[in-house]
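Exercise 3.2. Students should predict the tertiary structure of the chain below and write it as C-alpha coordinates, then compare their answer with the key that follows.

Predict this chain's 3D structure.
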Amino acid sequence: MAGLSPETPQPTDITVHQQSRVLEIGFSDGRSFRIPFELMRVYSPSAEVQGHGPGQEVLQTGKREVELTALEPVGNYAVQPTFSDGHDSGIFSWDYLYFLGAQQDELWQRYEARLREAGVDRDAPMAAAAASSCGHHH
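Answer key:
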Protein backbone atom coordinates (compact mmCIF):
# COMPACT_ATOMS: atom_id res chain seq x y z
CA MET A 1 0.00 0.00 0.00
CA ALA A 2 1.16 3.49 -0.80
CA GLY A 3 3.05 5.17 1.97
CA LEU A 4 3.35 2.08 4.12
CA SER A 5 6.95 1.52 4.98
CA PRO A 6 8.69 -0.23 7.84
CA GLU A 7 9.22 3.23 9.32
CA THR A 8 5.50 3.90 9.61
CA PRO A 9 4.66 3.69 13.31
CA GLN A 10 2.03 1.07 14.07
CA PRO A 11 -0.91 2.00 16.27
CA THR A 12 -0.62 0.47 19.71
CA ASP A 13 -4.14 1.35 20.70
CA ILE A 14 -7.20 3.02 19.24
CA THR A 15 -10.06 4.34 21.36
CA VAL A 16 -13.27 5.82 20.01
CA HIS A 17 -14.57 8.57 22.31
CA GLN A 18 -18.21 9.08 21.34
CA GLN A 19 -18.86 11.84 23.91
CA SER A 20 -16.01 14.10 22.81
CA ARG A 21 -16.13 12.88 19.18
CA VAL A 22 -12.46 12.07 18.89
CA LEU A 23 -10.48 9.04 17.85
CA GLU A 24 -7.62 8.58 20.27
CA ILE A 25 -4.75 6.72 18.72
CA GLY A 26 -1.41 5.81 20.23
CA PHE A 27 1.51 4.88 18.00
CA SER A 28 4.53 2.67 18.50
CA ASP A 29 6.86 5.70 18.41
CA GLY A 30 5.25 6.93 21.63
CA ARG A 31 3.15 9.66 20.09
CA SER A 32 -0.55 9.83 20.78
CA PHE A 33 -3.16 11.85 18.92
CA ARG A 34 -6.77 12.79 19.48
CA ILE A 35 -8.26 13.20 16.02
CA PRO A 36 -11.73 14.76 15.87
CA PHE A 37 -14.29 12.78 13.87
CA GLU A 38 -15.04 15.98 11.97
CA LEU A 39 -11.43 16.24 10.79
CA MET A 40 -11.43 12.60 9.72
CA ARG A 41 -14.71 13.09 7.88
CA VAL A 42 -13.63 16.30 6.17
CA TYR A 43 -10.30 14.78 5.10
CA SER A 44 -11.63 11.32 4.31
CA PRO A 45 -9.34 9.71 1.73
CA SER A 46 -12.33 8.42 -0.25
CA ALA A 47 -13.00 9.40 -3.86
CA GLU A 48 -16.31 10.85 -2.69
CA VAL A 49 -14.39 13.53 -0.78
CA GLN A 50 -11.05 13.72 -2.59
CA GLY A 51 -12.56 13.55 -6.06
CA HIS A 52 -10.78 11.85 -8.91
CA GLY A 53 -7.87 14.22 -9.33
CA PRO A 54 -6.32 17.45 -8.04
CA GLY A 55 -8.82 20.25 -7.66
CA GLN A 56 -11.69 17.75 -7.64
CA GLU A 57 -12.03 17.72 -3.86
CA VAL A 58 -15.56 18.09 -2.59
CA LEU A 59 -15.63 20.61 0.26
CA GLN A 60 -17.38 18.96 3.18
CA THR A 61 -19.56 21.06 5.49
CA GLY A 62 -21.97 20.45 8.33
CA LYS A 63 -19.79 17.71 9.83
CA ARG A 64 -19.12 19.22 13.26
CA GLU A 65 -21.64 16.89 14.91
CA VAL A 66 -20.75 13.81 12.87
CA GLU A 67 -20.31 10.64 14.87
CA LEU A 68 -18.32 7.51 14.28
CA THR A 69 -20.78 4.62 14.25
CA ALA A 70 -18.35 1.83 13.34
CA LEU A 71 -14.65 1.26 12.84
CA GLU A 72 -13.67 -1.81 10.84
CA PRO A 73 -10.10 -3.05 10.50
CA VAL A 74 -8.81 -3.36 6.93
CA GLY A 75 -6.04 -5.94 6.82
CA ASN A 76 -3.35 -4.86 9.26
CA TYR A 77 -2.67 -1.50 7.69
CA ALA A 78 -5.85 0.56 7.95
CA VAL A 79 -9.32 1.12 9.39
CA GLN A 80 -12.56 1.91 7.60
CA PRO A 81 -14.87 4.12 9.64
CA THR A 82 -18.60 4.46 9.16
CA PHE A 83 -19.86 7.95 9.98
CA SER A 84 -23.33 8.88 11.18
CA ASP A 85 -24.03 10.68 7.88
CA GLY A 86 -23.67 7.37 6.06
CA HIS A 87 -20.19 8.00 4.68
CA ASP A 88 -18.19 4.78 4.81
CA SER A 89 -15.95 4.67 1.75
CA GLY A 90 -12.78 6.10 3.30
CA ILE A 91 -9.90 3.74 4.06
CA PHE A 92 -7.64 5.36 6.65
CA SER A 93 -4.17 3.81 6.60
CA TRP A 94 -1.99 4.08 9.69
CA ASP A 95 0.27 6.61 8.02
CA TYR A 96 -2.73 8.71 6.97
CA LEU A 97 -4.08 8.70 10.53
CA TYR A 98 -0.62 9.63 11.76
CA PHE A 99 -0.54 12.47 9.24
CA LEU A 100 -4.00 13.70 10.32
CA GLY A 101 -2.94 13.60 13.97
CA ALA A 102 0.45 15.22 13.50
CA GLN A 103 -0.76 17.93 11.10
CA GLN A 104 -4.20 18.63 12.49
CA ASP A 105 -3.60 22.30 13.35
CA GLU A 106 -2.47 23.01 9.82
CA LEU A 107 -5.28 20.89 8.37
CA TRP A 108 -7.91 22.85 10.34
CA GLN A 109 -6.43 26.11 9.05
CA ARG A 110 -6.50 24.81 5.49
CA TYR A 111 -10.10 23.65 5.92
CA GLU A 112 -11.17 27.02 7.33
CA ALA A 113 -9.39 28.81 4.49
CA ARG A 114 -11.21 26.65 1.94
CA LEU A 115 -14.54 27.42 3.62
CA ARG A 116 -13.77 31.15 3.44
CA GLU A 117 -12.74 30.94 -0.21
CA ALA A 118 -15.91 29.06 -1.06
CA GLY A 119 -17.97 31.49 1.02
CA VAL A 120 -19.67 28.69 2.91
CA ASP A 121 -20.24 28.17 6.60
CA ARG A 122 -18.59 25.24 8.36
CA ASP A 123 -22.00 24.15 9.64
CA ALA A 124 -23.88 24.58 6.36
CA PRO A 125 -25.66 21.43 5.24
CA MET A 126 -24.06 19.80 2.22
CA ALA A 127 -25.59 21.17 -0.98
CA ALA A 128 -28.21 18.82 -2.35
CA ALA A 129 -26.83 19.28 -5.87
CA ALA A 130 -23.42 17.98 -4.87
CA ALA A 131 -24.98 14.99 -3.16
CA SER A 132 -27.17 14.00 -6.09
CA SER A 133 -24.41 14.39 -8.68
CA CYS A 134 -22.13 12.23 -6.60
CA GLY A 135 -24.44 9.95 -4.67
CA HIS A 136 -23.30 6.38 -4.13
CA HIS A 137 -21.51 5.74 -7.38
CA HIS A 138 -19.16 3.11 -5.96
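Discussion points: The chain has five helices and six strands. The chain has a mean pLDDT of 89.
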